[in-house]
Amino acid sequence: MDSSDKPAITHPAVFQLAKFFPYRLNRLSATISEGLQQVYAQRFELSRDEWRILSGVNEHGRAKTTDLIASTGLDKMQASRAVARLEEASYISREADPEDRRNRILAITPAGRRLHAQIAPIVLAREAFLLEVLSDDERRVLDKALDALQQRAEQLRRQG
Amino acid sequence: MDSSDKPAITHPAVFQLAKFFPYRLNRLSATISEGLQQVYAQRFELSRDEWRILSGVNEHGRAKTTDLIASTGLDKMQASRAVARLEEASYISREADPEDRRNRILAITPAGRRLHAQIAPIVLAREAFLLEVLSDDERRVLDKALDALQQRAEQLRRQG
DNA sequence: TATTGTTATACTCTATAACTATA
DNA sequence: TATAGTTATAGAGTATAACAATA
After folding, report:
1. Where on strand D do bases come within 7 A of a protein Cβ?
2. What does the buried/exposed string (b/e) look like for A54-78 if buried means 16 or more CB atoms within 10 Å of the residue's CB?
3. A4 - beta bridge partners?
4. What share of chain A has pLDDT > 70, as a percent?
5. Rounded distance, CA B141 to CA A154, Å?
6. Cβ separation A149–B126 shorter than 8 A
7. Which of A140, B12, B109, B154 could form a disulfide with B8 if both were Cys (CB 3.0 to 4.6 A apart)?
8. Region class of B73: left (phi > 0), else alpha (psi between -120 and 50), else beta
9. Whole-number Å distance between alpha carbons of B56 and B68
């Protein structure tokens, strides 16, 4: 571990965009997203939102739209539209919840499961390729940092 | 440093969106961006693109649009429009380059400099608040990881 | 012919809110 | 009254390409 006394991520008198952490993070996220779009959008004709909903339904088996909103980071309109498109393409099915008929219970179809099984290994391989540049220790730090920063970022957003 | 043999960022048989690195990174980046928009958009009526261009011109003193495209991550249309709006608001000025009259040389105006000087301390304070949760060593790892991942991500995007 | 920068157009995405049906 | 989910609408942002001026 580098223990020089030069602190990481600091700033000189003049604001430098290229050293600004939110900017660097946004660039990285955008670059990765553009690469992933080439997979699920171009090859499989899924939008990012549809991919997230499909993954959520695949993972949870049966889920209410509300549950998916919590686990995908989408809002209710994005989720509603992604669900509608996935149902139209027969990748998921919707049925009423007998216990509360406002809810729609979503389930993945065999076709949806096959589609997900095609895409998941590809995007996981890309993730693995990305993370290959980091050591195990560096990955652990990154893993922990993402969670800690996420909490702080949500706090900042709430406070305005 | 944690040296248990449990590797960081791995996956079980079922694809879990919440553990997928690109997803987590995107959520973090989006949350931070939404917080920052509250500053430069709501308080100062600047879009993210305008903020980037303003920062670039502030940093480099005089710059061609082409230089700014490289240093802001924007494409030429986004840059052209952000430049036009900033000029209309008198935050930057444009003049012809005598050496190549296709170029426009951009410079920040006193009003632009004042605006930037108002915003920069606020967003830097937010960045500092975010990074406070990390130790110096963790920040160094993160700093290095962002650069390494950015290179890999660009490689992936190029390869398709 | 190639490059800088602008404009046009259509398309997609987003934000706000109104709306339906349940509870 | 409140919630789950849908629909409507307008505004913002994006992508593609055509374009003018210059090299």
Report:
1. 3-8, 12-17, 21-23
2. bbbbbbbeebbbebbbebbbbeeeb
3. none
4. 96
5. 22
6. no
7. A140
8. left
9. 6
